[in-house]
Amino acid sequence: MESQIAEITQHTGGVIGVSWLMIAFPLLGAFILLVFNRFTNRWGHLLGVAMSLASFVVAVLAFFELIGFGEEARRRAVHLFEFIPGMPGEPPMVDMGLLIDPLSISFALLITGVGSLIHIYSIGYMSHDEHRRRFFAYLNLFVAAMLLLVLADNYVGLFIGWEGVGLASYLLIGFWQFKPSAAVAAKKAFVVNRVGDFGLLVGMFVIWTTFGTLAFKDLAAQTSGVENGTTLAIGLLLLLGACGKSAQLPLQSWLLDAMEGPTPVSALIHAATMVTAGVYLVVRSGAFFFHEGSGAALAVAIVGAATLLAGAIIGCAKDDIKKGLAGSTMSQIGYMMLGAGLGPAGYAFAIGHLITHGFFKADMFLGAGSVMHGMNDEVDMRKYGALRKVMPVTFITFFIGYLAIIGFPLLSGYFTKDGIIETAVHHQPVLGWLAVLGAGITGFYMSRMVFMTFFGQKRWADDAHPHESPAVMTWPLIILSIGSIFLGGYLILSNTLMLFLSPAVGRPAELPEFHFTSVPGLATLALVAVGAAFAWMRYGRVEVPAVQPRGNFLTTFARRDLYGDALNESLFMRPGQWLTRIAVFFDNRGVDGLVNGLAAGIGGSSGRLRRIQTGFARTYALSILIGAALLTGALLLVGNI
Amino acid sequence: MSPWLPILMAVPVVGAIVVALLPKGSDKLAKQVTLAVSLLVLVLTGVMAAGFKPSGERFQFTAAYDWIPSFGVKFGVGVDGVALVLIALSVVLVPIVVLASWHDADGVKTADGTLITPKRSVKTYFSLLLVLETMMIGVFAATDIFLFYVFFEAMLIPMYFMIGSYGGAQRSYAAVKFLLYSLFGGLLMLVAVIGLYVVAGSKTFMFPELVGAIQDPTTQKWLFGGFFIAFAIKAPLWPVHTWLPDAAAQAPAGAAVLLVGVLDKVGTFGMLRFCLELFPDAAKAFTMPIVVLAVISIIYGAIVAIGQTDMKRLIAYTSISHFGFIVLGVFAMSATAQSGAALYMVNHGFATGALFLAAGFLIARRGSPFIGDYGGVQKVAPLLAGFFLVAGLAGLSLPGLSSFVSEFMVMIGTYSSAAHGSGALTVAAVIAALAVILAAVYILWMIQRAMNGPTAEPVKLFKDLNAREVWVLAPLIALIIGFGFFPKPLLDVINPSVHQTLTNVQVPTSTIAEKGTGQ
Amino acid sequence: MTTHYLVLSGLLFAIGALGVLIRRNAIVVFMCVELMLNACNLAFVTFSRQVGNLEGQVIAFFVMVVAAAEVVVGLAIIVTIFRTRRSASVDDANLLKY
Predict the structure, then answer these.
(1) For domain C2-91, is the CATH number 3.90.1150.180?
(2) Which one of A317, B51, B237, B372 is most buried, counting C-beta atoms within 10 A?
(3) How far is CA B485 from the centre of its chain?
(4) Is the pLDDT reported for residue C47 higher than 70?
(5) Same domain, A550 and A574
(6) Helix, strand or coil for residue B454?
(7) Which residues from A are below 8 Å from C21, CB to CB?
(8) pTM reported for the whole predicted model
(9) Among B233, B241, B437, the residue to mutate for chain A (most A Cβ within 10 A)
(10) Is the same domain home to A385 and A339?
């Protein structure tokens, strides 16, 4: 299974030559909206949408220009500027440039496309918020940073984008920062992400020290495709980074809290794009450090499999619709990581699932947002019920997303998830069957969500008057749900995506063929059906209690996010607080105390010494006499007189 | 002989005299004159810097006048790349500080509304500020080690008065502590300077002629110690750091900016230029202990910063952490790390300057430096909160902001440094990298407590930044973002001089040579 | 011969010094100081005579001149102190106390 990755060609001119415009447009938007502040209040949201759309247009044009090249020439590097110059007479340490290749352009299309739809949706969703302009500024900032992340042709550029999206995520989670919970969640997301960034940072140190470059182009020429201790270490460090950004175990805890942000943010950042950056990092570095069958790749797959189960279990117990979806996001990214850990055979499915997930999860998040919009921002599904009649468009689009995520045959999710499962069963049977199990749980919790929200009896609050959302919100839903239906089949059935991506990530020697009746596939469908049926029995057929019942041990376990927070708290937060307190005490009393003690000592002894100054002239006279006598004596002693 | 540097040093002094001689009651005029003079110096420096040729001689704009001929002491000035960017940093910060300190010399408001009145007049404050500017230019420009020493010590005087006469409640304590600490270090340095003169025996204090003059390793170690302790106190490095939080917390915000942003840089600048180049063998011999101290500073400063309740003290402790990075970069014996360290000196000045000033504006509104007395500022003063956030993000070295580039270069250079068999420095770099997590905690936790959440009762009356305050912060933020993406102009100036330093120390100067052998 | 003079000079000096140390009255202390000075003078003159040149005698004159000047200043101070404090005791003028 040799991966055939194309060489990177330097490129000038054409749309690709100005592909930096993709980043520049939203960046300019954010700049204008933030600097010109309240003067842009009236039309700020329109500018935000326009900038995002402009970026999308550039991405589409660049895409068409790219596929105009022969398959081997589809990796175009565009040089931008010298970022960190080297010593005199030496080449620069880091050159900033963009890499337009099938992988990055796929991401760029997803980010700008889904991003633009979510921008449009936000016009309606945020229409009552007095800070809507600021919201769009942050969204634009996010899009710019995310594009830099995926388009940069070196790790430093990627890292700038990486932290840029982290910043945007911080700002947007904390958008309603006057709520203490939002402020805490924002900080938590950033700090947990920084733990991952530490891994990425140290990974870059090792890469630089070992290979003397951080550019993908030069790395491709230097890495041999064989794993050794160093590349394993790099791989694990990068994986730590990926875990932070993509909310994979053990750095998953921030994602659920991140739902404090406005719902479009959850859809764009915490479902469709940013959280998938970890998958991008793994796939992008795949040829260098995650060789097929290597230990690093295996670690990726294990993390993916563990997280897909953990996320699914958490999703089962949440009554907060957004947190339920967040658990599901964790779980779906787990699938992608699993796919990305399988080498070139899995990359196309991982990216494919990433793209379709971008559509159906954004669709469902926005759908959830639409429900909340009609329900006075109520998020508790126990207060929903029977909403399908009052919100028909939302219901239908959400339902399509639901069918896609559980892998209903012929919908998007079916093809991409099944691809991952089949490849996993083939390469790593244990992980593969765990993924099958995960799909069954997905069937349960997603059905539970749909039944609790749209079916059953009304359990609305007294002042709730649910209504369908305006067209500016429903049209993005419709477009996303169309993607959720067809995209998967198009990408996977005739290996379209795999062939398209292969110059960038390589492909297996033998192209896979999609079987509708494979054993794992059928097993998945059966488990999903069982899960859905079980959900129907618990939440569809019978009345859902409006107050959360006391669950058994397993339910509590899932409600508490598998005790992830408790673990972090007892393992890091409390010891950290103690350490801080001890350090502060030590600094004040120990280090500074020593200094002040020295000062006090000198002061004290001089205070005692000055008591010699009695003020009596005769005392002084006596001391003079004694001094004179001593001197004379001393002189006599040495015999100089 | 170029008149540039003497002129640059003369202009602020003349300005200071003019300001001091203004009649009583013309406070506003004093402020305006000070601002004009500092802007003039900025423009002059800009014109001078434009004529600097990175590929030319190491020291440019040199001038030397006989001062004490019997000892060979000269008034010798000249700048290399590192000195130039630090002078640029100083002259950029001074007008900003003048504008920021517009009301600082009127007294410090406390939380209960009482006013701590200054001991001296307003015009004296601004006059001192200009005197300080001359000394800051002088200390970086001096190529005569005796002259450097004189400026090194003389700088304490205006700063002592600025803290001691215009500071907060505990100003005297802080000012005396600052002075005693610095004097103690200065004394050791004086001994080393005289020792250097005597041992070298070349009847001169001119730095370029003294490079390589001391060959005996033991002598080098003793003299190195004298210089290093003085610079370590100045920098400040753990465990001689405790004067900084006190001084920075008690000083008026503007003075604190110059103290942390420029004065402390003299320490790291001195290490880079004097400790390394005059005593290369000693520097190499002491690399490991110093790296250990630097790493302790980085982590310790960050942890103690997390536990602070006083905003200004918190920022001071973050600076101790950042100075750890600079010292680490200076002594990592790698071109990348050292360029990064030199760049960090500049970037830290802008980033911490912005943070101190933003915190100063916040404190001026409420009178209390305690984080717990705020909350929800973002809602009533979004501009202030926004600037504070960006400055804070620069403090946590967010990529895309200037401090990231330098921190990244220091860490990656240290990691890949071949000195001392890469192992130990590799570990140092990894431990230092942990600070990126701690930095996020101390900055964001402070922002969460001060800026977010429900608006506290006294905060509700806050006014957002006025035009003057925006003009103070906006240039700094622009510089932080600008150099975050285009550090090239600075690095192009810094790199040749770092190259020269490392050549004198006889360390591989190539970034390429640091790279391993591949696989 | 010389020895006798020197012993006398030493005795006078010792008496003067003792007086300075144990007497409180400023005037007496003052006179004791004079006594010490004159003891020195006696020693100078003695040595001068023994060695056979005039330098010692010249110095004795110098000492007398200084002593005279000292008396002028000293008495003035004593009188001033007496006026302000109504006391001529040296122990009452202890403003230099710590």
Answers:
(1) no
(2) B237
(3) 22
(4) yes
(5) no
(6) coil
(7) 618, 621-622, 625
(8) 0.88
(9) B437
(10) yes
CB B483, CB B490: distance < 8 Å: yes
- Cβ separation A615–C21 shorter than 8 A: no
Q: For position B322, what pLDDT does the model report?
A: 94
Domain-ending residue, one of A534, A559, A584: A559
Give B512 or A211, the one with higher predicted confidence.
A211
Domain boundary among A535, A559, A583: A559
**For chain B, percent of residues with pLDDT exceeding 70:** 96
pLDDT of residue B510: 67
Q: Which helix (H) or strand (E) holds A77?
A: strand A76-84
Does residue A143 form part of some domain?
A: no
Within 8 A of B399 by CB-CB distance, chain A residues are 156, 159-160, 162-164
Residue B74 CA to residue A562 CA, distance in Å, equals 72
CB contact under 8 A, A625 and C17: yes
Chain C residues whose CB is inside 8 A of the A616 CB are: 90-91, 94
If you count them, how many residues does chain C have?
A: 98
Torsion (CA) B88, B89, B95, B98 in degrees, nearest 10: -150
Length of chain A: 641
Cβ count near A604 (within 10 Å): 10
**CA-CA distance, B105 to B121, in Å (whole number)?**
8
**B303, A201: Cβ pair inside 8 Å?**
no
Which residues lie closer than 8 Å to B387 by C-beta, 6 or more apart?
B354, B358, B465, B473, B477
Residues B149/B189, Cβ–Cβ less than 8 Å: yes
Q: How many other β-carbons are positioned within 10 Å of the β-carbon of residue A293?
A: 13
B303 chain-A contacts, CB cut-off 8 A: 579-580, 583
Q: Inter-chain contact B55–A88, Cβ cutoff 8 Å? A: yes
pLDDT tens, A385-413? 778 888 888 888 989 999 999 888 888 88
Closest CA to A414 of A426, A403, A424: A403
Give the separation between CA B295 and CA B517, rounded to whole angstroms: 27
Mark whether A586 and A440 lie in a shared domain.
no
* Residue among A410, A361, A371 at smallest CA distance from A393: A371
- What residues 44-83 of chain B have any CB closer than 8 A to a CB of chain A? 54-55
Among chain A residues, CA nearest to B301:
A583
Quick one: tokens of A127? 């229409």
Residue range A555-580, pLDDT digits in tens: 777 777 777 778 888 888 888 888 88
Chains touching A (at least 3 CB pairs under 8 A) are B, C
Could you tell me which residues are beta bridge partners of residue A99? A77
Q: Tell me if chain C has a CB within 8 Å of the CB of A618.
A: yes
Do residues A584 and A472 both lie within one domain? Answer: no
Residue B366, both tokens: 């409420």
Is the backbone peptide bond immediately before B399 cis, with ω within 30 degrees of 0? no
Running DSSP on this structure, what letter comes out for residue A409? T
- Which of B317, B310, B446 has its CA nearest to residue B370? B310
Of residues C34 and A507, more confidence is placed in C34
Minimal C-alpha gap between A126 and chain B (Å) = 18
- Are B42 and B95 in contact, with CB atoms under 8 Å apart? yes
Other Cβ atoms less than 10 A from the Cβ of C53: the count is: 11
DSSP letter, residue A391 = -
Decide: C29 and C20 in contact? Cβ < 8 Å: yes
In sign, the C-alpha dihedral spanning A334, A340, A345, A348 is positive
DSSP state of A512: -
**Which residues of chain A neighbour C17 with C-beta distances below 8 Å?**
625
